[in-house]
Amino acid sequence: MNLEFIYSMHPDAYTDIIEEESNYADIERYKEAMISIGIASFIVIALLAFLLPYGLTIKGVIIGVCGPVSYFAFPYLAISVAAERRRKEMETVLPDALLLISTNIKSGTSINRAFLASARDEFGPLQEELRTTAIEISGGKSVQEALDNMRGRVKSEIFKDTLKILSDAIESGGNTAELLESSADDI
Predict the structure, then answer these.
(1) Cα 178 off chain centre by
(2) What percent of the chain has pLDDT over 70?
(3) Which residues, at least 6 apart from 137, have a Cβ–Cβ distance to it below 8 Å?
(4) In angstroms, rounded to a whole number, what is the distance separating the alpha carbons of residues 96 and 9?
(5) Which pLDDT band, with edges at 50, 70 and 90, does 25 fall under?
(6) Residue 118 CB-half CA count within 13 A
(7) Distance from C-alpha of 76 to C-alpha of 71, rounded to nearest angstrom
(8) How far apart (Å, rounded) are the C-alpha atoms in residues 138 and 143?
(9) Closest listed residue to residue 161, CA positions, set 151, 171, 150
(10) Which one, of 97, 104, 83, lies nearest residue 162 by Cα?
(11) From the DSSP assignment, how many helices (H) and strands (E) are in the chain?
């Protein structure tokens, strides 16, 4: 069967949630991940049910009830855990990244160059976000639009609030470097 066909058979509300969580977890092949984890969890439930010392009717009920629940629940849980892990990693290094961006801006570097120069390996997933945002700005997107895109890819209220404040400061012509430093101190 075609993967797209199988994916299209799922409820829209469920696929919307999976897509959003996959975006936050930075999982590009989320359709394959969702279907693979779902099928694997269903098979595990079926195998466990057959190992139980009950009759076929009870085993059928267990498979009929727990199988579909596990098919939908486990992919969501796995992808959500990945998104949460990514969020924690990014929040941990966010103050250091903000200070580095601030230092680069103070040295006279443009915002896109400051983001690019601050995209260090030790920042983990934040490195890629900084690089992507710098490339978007260099490619012609406005700073506000690039920061909004970055906010949409990260599942962290602290991160989103910091980017919103940064975007507002840039738009109003505020002292961006000092704002970044104070945000890093607050975090």
Answers:
(1) 28
(2) 99
(3) 111, 112, 115, 143, 146
(4) 44
(5) very high
(6) 28
(7) 9
(8) 9
(9) 151
(10) 97
(11) 9, 0
| Complete DSSP assignment for 65-115 | HHHHHHHHHHHHHHHHHHHHHHHHHHHHHHHHHHHHHHHHHHTT--HHHHH
Question: Coil, helix or strand for 60?
Answer: helix
The pair of three-digit structure tokens given for residue 41, joined into one six-digit string = 């969890």
Q: What is the DSSP letter of 15?
A: H
Structure tokens at 107: 């040295």
Which amino acid appears at position 46 of this protein? A
Match 């897509």 to its residue by tokens: 19
Q: How far, in Å, CA of 56 to CA of 29, rounded? A: 37
- Give the predicted TM-score (pTM) of the model: 0.82
Q: Evaluate whether 30 touches 18 at the Cβ level (below 8 Å).
A: yes
Q: Is the pLDDT of residue 1 over 70?
A: no
The predicted-structure confidence for 134-185, as pLDDT tens digits, reads as follows 999 999 998 889 999 999 998 899 988 888 888 888 777 777 778 788 888 8
Euclidean distance between CA atoms 12 and 69, whole angstroms: 17
Please tell me the distance from the alpha carbon of residue 22 to that of residue 7, in angstroms, as a whole number.
Answer: 14
pLDDT at 80: 96
174 vs 186, more confident: 186
